[in-house]
Design goal:
The chain has 472 residues and is an alpha/beta fold. It is built from 15 helices and 16 strands. Helix content is 41%, strand content 14%.
């Protein structure tokens, strides 16, 4: 950490602790320089960093002030799903959301798509153009079932940041994280089996479980610390669960990062009951704090964790490049890969490998983390302003998804249908539950900057919610 980053962190902690109150003037640049024994430029850089995070704001000829903030709404409490094996539903609603992608004039507030318009992605376009220009005929043929070694080597280096040591031979390239999760599920489960999942949970994973004839036990989940270890232990004692599926880092949709102690506790349970852990780390690189959080896979000593990820959320979903580190299930995963897609597009793999090798990936990640954190502040502000009183809002620690919980007498599903007529798409919470719970909740995507059109969409959404609350 540089001097200015260290100073910015110290000042941010003082603001959070209330030592510098909302609206209060901060010490002058010169006085902080003298107090901490650093240069004036170091203090100025620290203040600029806090300004980017919207913690402080400058006032001409007056200095810097702590940003005025409204009281934060409370975070959602521990969820309480039905804790018994159920069959996954909601396919019709998921299909309707997928169809929404084809409507070009819709404001998608509920999708899982990142911002792909930033200038740091331009080197990727250059790599794609360069590869096409050379017209290497081998790139039009079938790739190895394992994927291109050059990309697997780059991924193995990236994984070191999460504490995970894996060689290129441990990694299997897939067509996005969706295929990685599909391979992982079929590598450890069969039709009629039971798996445990966080609740709420990614609807794509649950639709796979539905297709494979696998039942689900939804486990209570805290919006700050993640899945309840105690509830998971109880479920493992009651039911013959084969695997637990988790998104422990920058969770979709709650945004939490599970503390390392809880990750270790879940792994200990998996060892005790001899089950697999399917870890979805697709958002892990987008944690706002550096270094990025550890994966459960980094703590795995007996190969029972199947780590799945991709570049769909960090770069672009259209690349369709993901990977799985299946541990002890490698042979089974290879077979599943072969019978589904055989091999992955070599064109995208080579472009991504070069993008990483040239240092462009880390530059892009730094920009996206900062952008998403700023967007979160803007969206949270608008949600507080336009949405009804009495709501609970998650406080994501990374990624670009937030979870909003309204009073229980509100049904979001018909509101979603009404807003679609206004060309606004939000995701009802029931999409993210195997049993259709959370009809009073919604998921918002804040990947794109909050321009006038997006703010107007949030205002219309808030108007619809306020009206529904009045009529409830």
């Amino acid at each position: 950490m540089t001097r200015y980053q260290h100073l910015a962190t110290l000042l941010a902690e003082r603001i959070e602790q209330g030592l510098y109150r909302s609206g209060e003037r901060l010490p002058s640049v010169r006085s902080l320089s003298n107090e901490h024994g650093v240069s004036i430029s170091t203090v100025q850089q620290a203040y600029h960093l806090l300004e980017d995070k919207q913690l402080i704001s400058p006032q001409p000829r007056s200095g810097y002030f702590v940003t005025q903030r409204k009281a934060q709404p409370p975070v959602p409490q521990l969820t309480r799903p039905v804790q018994r094996p159920v069959e996954v539903t909601q396919w019709d609603a998921v299909l309707e959301q997928l169809v929404t992608r084809e409507e070009g004039d819709i404001i998608a507030l509920g999708s899982g798509v990142p911002d792909v318009t930033q200038p740091t992605i331009k080197p990727l376009w250059r790599e794609l153009s360069r590869i096409a220009q050379y017209q290497q005929s081998e790139l039009l043929g079938y790739d190895s079932i394992h994927g291109m070694r050059s990309l697997r080597e780059q991924i193995s280096r990236l994984m070191l940041d999460s504490g995970c040591v894996a060689t290129a031979d441990d990694i299997l390239i897939t067509t996005g994280c969706h295929e990685a999760l599909s391979i992982a599920i079929r590598a450890v489960c069969e039709a009629g089996d039971i798996v445990a999942v966080e609740s709420p949970s990614f609807h794509g994973t649950m639709q796979m479980l539905r297709a494979f004839g696998i039942k689900v036990v939804e486990i209570p989940t805290d919006s700050v610390t993640g899945i309840s270890v105690e509830a998971l232990e109880l479920a493992l004692e009651q039911w013959p669960i084969k695997a637990v599926i988790l998104v422990p880092n920058c969770n979709n949709p709650l945004g939490f990062i599970m503390p390392d102690a809880r990750k270790k506790a879940v792994l200990t349970l998996a060892q005790r009951f001899d089950i697999a852990i399917i870890e979805d780390d697709v958002y892990g690189e987008l944690a706002y704090e550096y270094p990025r959080p550890m994966t459960i896979k980094s703590m795995d000593v007996d190969g029972r964790v199947l780590l799945c990820s991709s570049f769909s959320k960090t770069l672009a979903p259209g690349l369709r490049v993901g990977w799985i580190v299946p541990g002890r299930y490698l042979d089974r995963a290879l077979h599943m890969k072969y019978i589904v897609t055989g091999s992955t597009s070599t064109f995208s793999q080579l472009a991504v490998a070069e993008f990483i090798r040239n240092g462009n990936y880390h530059r892009h990640l730094r920009r996206m983390r900062q952008l998403y954190q700023r967007n979160l502040e803007d969206f949270t502000c608008h949600v507080r302003h336009y949405f009804p009183c009495g709501i609970c809002v998650s406080r994501p620690q990374g990624g670009f998804m937030m979870w909003v919980e309204l009073p229980e007498n509100i049904d979001i599903v018909p509101i979603c249908c009404a807003l679609r007529e206004e060309h606004i798409h939000i995701a009802a919470g029931s999409l993210l539950s195997a049993s259709g719970k959370y009809r009073n909740c919604l998921r918002l995507n804040y990947a794109s900057p909050c321009d006038a059109a997006t703010e107007a969409a949030l205002r219309k959404t808030g108007d619809a919610l306020n009206k529904a609350l009045e009529n409830a």
